[in-house]
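Researcher: I'm comparing several assemblies side by side, and this is the next one on my list. It has 226 residues spread over two chains. Same procedure as the others: predict the full complex and return the structure.
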Amino acid sequence: KQEVTQIPAALSVPEGENLVLNCSFTDSAIYNLQWFRQDPGKGLTSLLLIQSSQREQTSGRLNASLDKSSGRSTLYIAASQPGDSATYLCAVRPMDSSYKLIFGSGTRLLVRP
Amino acid sequence: DAGVIQSPRHEVTEMGQEVTLRCKPISGHDYLFWYRQTMMRGLELLIYFNNNVPIDDSGMPEDRFSAKMPNASFSTLKIQPSEPRDSAVYFCASSLDPAGELFFGEGSRLTVL
Protein backbone atom coordinates (compact mmCIF):
# COMPACT_ATOMS: atom_id res chain seq x y z
CA LYS A 1 0.00 0.00 0.00
CA GLN A 2 1.40 3.34 -1.07
CA GLU A 3 2.14 5.78 1.73
CA VAL A 4 3.32 9.36 1.37
CA THR A 5 5.20 11.14 4.13
CA GLN A 6 6.13 14.80 4.37
CA ILE A 7 8.74 16.03 6.80
CA PRO A 8 8.81 18.41 8.57
CA ALA A 9 5.15 18.89 9.47
CA ALA A 10 5.80 22.58 10.07
CA LEU A 11 8.55 25.00 9.14
CA SER A 12 9.19 28.63 10.02
CA VAL A 13 11.84 30.63 8.16
CA PRO A 14 12.77 34.31 7.78
CA GLU A 15 11.93 36.05 4.55
CA GLY A 16 14.50 35.65 1.79
CA GLU A 17 15.68 32.20 2.76
CA ASN A 18 15.89 29.37 0.26
CA LEU A 19 14.15 26.29 1.56
CA VAL A 20 13.47 22.66 0.73
CA LEU A 21 10.35 20.66 1.50
CA ASN A 22 10.60 16.89 1.49
CA CYS A 23 8.23 14.18 0.32
CA SER A 24 8.84 10.44 0.43
CA PHE A 25 6.74 7.56 -0.86
CA THR A 26 6.97 3.85 -0.16
CA ASP A 27 6.28 2.37 -3.60
CA SER A 28 8.37 3.60 -6.52
CA ALA A 29 5.81 2.40 -9.08
CA ILE A 30 4.23 5.78 -9.62
CA TYR A 31 2.73 7.39 -12.72
CA ASN A 32 3.48 10.95 -11.65
CA LEU A 33 3.78 13.23 -8.64
CA GLN A 34 2.06 16.55 -8.04
CA TRP A 35 2.81 19.35 -5.59
CA PHE A 36 -0.01 21.54 -4.30
CA ARG A 37 -0.36 24.59 -2.14
CA GLN A 38 -3.29 25.06 0.23
CA ASP A 39 -4.07 28.35 1.94
CA PRO A 40 -6.21 28.27 5.14
CA GLY A 41 -9.86 27.70 4.31
CA LYS A 42 -9.13 27.40 0.63
CA GLY A 43 -8.82 24.70 -1.98
CA LEU A 44 -5.66 23.18 -3.37
CA THR A 45 -3.68 25.00 -6.02
CA SER A 46 -1.55 22.90 -8.33
CA LEU A 47 2.09 24.00 -8.35
CA LEU A 48 4.02 21.41 -10.33
CA LEU A 49 3.39 18.03 -11.93
CA ILE A 50 6.34 15.70 -12.54
CA GLN A 51 5.91 12.66 -14.75
CA SER A 52 7.68 9.48 -13.65
CA SER A 53 10.12 9.81 -16.55
CA GLN A 54 11.16 13.32 -15.51
CA ARG A 55 13.74 14.37 -12.95
CA GLU A 56 12.54 17.90 -12.25
CA GLN A 57 10.12 20.67 -13.10
CA THR A 58 10.48 24.40 -12.59
CA SER A 59 7.99 27.23 -12.30
CA GLY A 60 9.27 30.64 -11.31
CA ARG A 61 10.91 30.42 -7.88
CA LEU A 62 9.77 26.81 -7.47
CA ASN A 63 11.71 23.73 -8.47
CA ALA A 64 10.52 20.19 -7.83
CA SER A 65 12.73 17.15 -8.22
CA LEU A 66 11.86 13.49 -8.38
CA ASP A 67 14.02 10.47 -7.56
CA LYS A 68 11.65 7.62 -8.19
CA SER A 69 14.07 4.83 -7.32
CA SER A 70 14.64 6.20 -3.83
CA GLY A 71 11.01 7.25 -3.39
CA ARG A 72 11.72 10.92 -2.85
CA SER A 73 10.71 14.31 -4.13
CA THR A 74 11.75 17.75 -3.00
CA LEU A 75 10.19 21.15 -3.53
CA TYR A 76 12.74 23.94 -3.54
CA ILE A 77 11.50 27.49 -2.94
CA ALA A 78 13.99 30.23 -3.72
CA ALA A 79 14.04 33.61 -1.99
CA SER A 80 11.00 32.88 0.16
CA GLN A 81 8.37 35.59 0.73
CA PRO A 82 5.63 35.99 3.35
CA GLY A 83 3.11 35.27 0.59
CA ASP A 84 4.58 31.78 0.31
CA SER A 85 3.14 30.95 3.74
CA ALA A 86 0.73 28.04 3.24
CA THR A 87 0.52 24.28 3.57
CA TYR A 88 2.34 22.39 0.82
CA LEU A 89 1.04 18.97 -0.12
CA CYS A 90 2.72 16.27 -2.12
CA ALA A 91 0.66 13.59 -3.89
CA VAL A 92 1.57 10.57 -6.00
CA ARG A 93 -0.40 8.57 -8.54
CA PRO A 94 0.21 4.81 -8.24
CA MET A 95 0.95 3.09 -11.53
CA ASP A 96 -1.88 0.60 -11.03
CA SER A 97 -4.50 3.26 -10.27
CA SER A 98 -3.18 6.38 -11.94
CA TYR A 99 -6.43 8.30 -11.52
CA LYS A 100 -6.06 8.27 -7.73
CA LEU A 101 -3.87 10.77 -5.90
CA ILE A 102 -2.36 9.57 -2.63
CA PHE A 103 -1.63 12.61 -0.49
CA GLY A 104 0.92 13.32 2.18
CA SER A 105 -0.21 15.17 5.30
CA GLY A 106 1.54 18.36 4.20
CA THR A 107 4.18 20.78 5.47
CA ARG A 108 2.87 23.98 7.02
CA LEU A 109 5.23 26.80 6.01
CA LEU A 110 5.46 30.18 7.69
CA VAL A 111 7.72 32.82 6.15
CA ARG A 112 8.35 35.59 8.67
CA PRO A 113 8.76 39.18 7.42
CA ASP B 1 -12.33 29.86 -17.12
CA ALA B 2 -13.68 30.40 -13.61
CA GLY B 3 -12.19 27.16 -12.33
CA VAL B 4 -14.02 24.46 -10.43
CA ILE B 5 -17.02 25.94 -8.63
CA GLN B 6 -18.49 24.39 -5.50
CA SER B 7 -21.50 25.27 -3.41
CA PRO B 8 -22.27 25.80 -0.65
CA ARG B 9 -18.96 26.95 0.80
CA HIS B 10 -20.21 26.27 4.31
CA GLU B 11 -23.02 24.05 5.54
CA VAL B 12 -24.10 23.51 9.12
CA THR B 13 -26.80 20.94 9.66
CA GLU B 14 -28.19 18.64 12.29
CA MET B 15 -27.65 14.93 12.48
CA GLY B 16 -30.14 13.04 10.35
CA GLN B 17 -30.63 15.79 7.79
CA GLU B 18 -29.93 15.38 4.10
CA VAL B 19 -26.95 17.30 2.71
CA THR B 20 -26.35 18.03 -0.98
CA LEU B 21 -23.04 19.43 -2.18
CA ARG B 22 -22.71 20.76 -5.72
CA CYS B 23 -19.88 21.05 -8.21
CA LYS B 24 -19.33 22.60 -11.62
CA PRO B 25 -16.11 21.33 -13.22
CA ILE B 26 -13.92 23.27 -15.60
CA SER B 27 -15.46 23.26 -19.04
CA GLY B 28 -13.96 20.55 -21.24
CA HIS B 29 -12.65 18.46 -18.38
CA ASP B 30 -13.96 14.92 -18.79
CA TYR B 31 -12.85 13.70 -15.37
CA LEU B 32 -14.43 14.77 -12.10
CA PHE B 33 -13.33 13.74 -8.63
CA TRP B 34 -14.80 14.11 -5.15
CA TYR B 35 -12.30 14.19 -2.26
CA ARG B 36 -12.83 14.56 1.47
CA GLN B 37 -10.36 16.23 3.83
CA THR B 38 -10.24 15.66 7.58
CA MET B 39 -7.59 16.30 10.19
CA MET B 40 -7.39 12.62 11.06
CA ARG B 41 -7.30 11.08 7.58
CA GLY B 42 -6.10 13.89 5.33
CA LEU B 43 -7.36 13.91 1.74
CA GLU B 44 -9.18 10.82 0.48
CA LEU B 45 -10.74 10.07 -2.89
CA LEU B 46 -14.44 9.27 -2.60
CA ILE B 47 -15.49 8.77 -6.22
CA TYR B 48 -14.54 9.76 -9.72
CA PHE B 49 -16.46 10.17 -12.98
CA ASN B 50 -15.42 9.92 -16.60
CA ASN B 51 -17.77 11.51 -19.12
CA ASN B 52 -20.50 11.63 -16.45
CA VAL B 53 -20.18 7.92 -15.64
CA PRO B 54 -19.01 6.83 -12.16
CA ILE B 55 -15.87 4.74 -12.61
CA ASP B 56 -14.63 4.05 -9.09
CA ASP B 57 -16.76 4.65 -6.02
CA SER B 58 -14.78 2.38 -3.71
CA GLY B 59 -13.86 5.36 -1.53
CA MET B 60 -17.46 6.20 -0.70
CA PRO B 61 -17.58 5.43 3.02
CA GLU B 62 -21.13 4.14 3.35
CA ASP B 63 -24.43 3.73 1.56
CA ARG B 64 -25.46 7.04 3.09
CA PHE B 65 -23.22 8.68 0.51
CA SER B 66 -24.22 8.95 -3.13
CA ALA B 67 -22.92 10.96 -6.08
CA LYS B 68 -24.36 11.79 -9.46
CA MET B 69 -23.28 13.58 -12.57
CA PRO B 70 -26.35 14.22 -14.72
CA ASN B 71 -24.39 16.21 -17.30
CA ALA B 72 -20.87 17.37 -18.12
CA SER B 73 -21.17 20.59 -16.14
CA PHE B 74 -22.76 19.47 -12.89
CA SER B 75 -22.23 16.92 -10.14
CA THR B 76 -23.73 16.38 -6.70
CA LEU B 77 -22.58 14.57 -3.59
CA LYS B 78 -25.41 13.67 -1.26
CA ILE B 79 -25.32 12.43 2.32
CA GLN B 80 -28.54 11.05 3.72
CA PRO B 81 -28.85 10.85 6.67
CA SER B 82 -25.89 12.90 7.81
CA GLU B 83 -23.90 12.08 10.96
CA PRO B 84 -21.44 14.14 13.04
CA ARG B 85 -18.51 12.02 11.76
CA ASP B 86 -19.28 13.26 8.24
CA SER B 87 -18.03 16.70 9.26
CA ALA B 88 -15.18 17.52 6.88
CA VAL B 89 -14.24 19.64 3.90
CA TYR B 90 -15.45 18.11 0.66
CA PHE B 91 -13.54 19.02 -2.48
CA CYS B 92 -14.48 18.61 -6.08
CA ALA B 93 -11.70 18.50 -8.68
CA SER B 94 -11.51 18.07 -12.43
CA SER B 95 -8.92 17.25 -15.07
CA LEU B 96 -8.51 16.75 -18.80
CA ASP B 97 -7.26 13.20 -18.37
CA PRO B 98 -7.40 10.80 -15.43
CA ALA B 99 -3.74 11.14 -14.49
CA GLY B 100 -3.26 14.72 -15.53
CA GLU B 101 -2.97 17.92 -13.57
CA LEU B 102 -5.84 18.13 -11.12
CA PHE B 103 -7.68 21.38 -10.43
CA PHE B 104 -9.56 21.73 -7.18
CA GLY B 105 -12.51 23.84 -6.14
CA GLU B 106 -12.55 25.91 -2.95
CA GLY B 107 -14.32 23.13 -1.04
CA SER B 108 -17.52 22.80 0.95
CA ARG B 109 -17.01 22.80 4.72
CA LEU B 110 -19.67 20.58 6.30
CA THR B 111 -20.46 20.59 10.00
CA VAL B 112 -22.99 18.09 11.28
CA LEU B 113 -24.17 18.80 14.82
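Model: For your comparison table: The radius of gyration of chain A is 13 Å.
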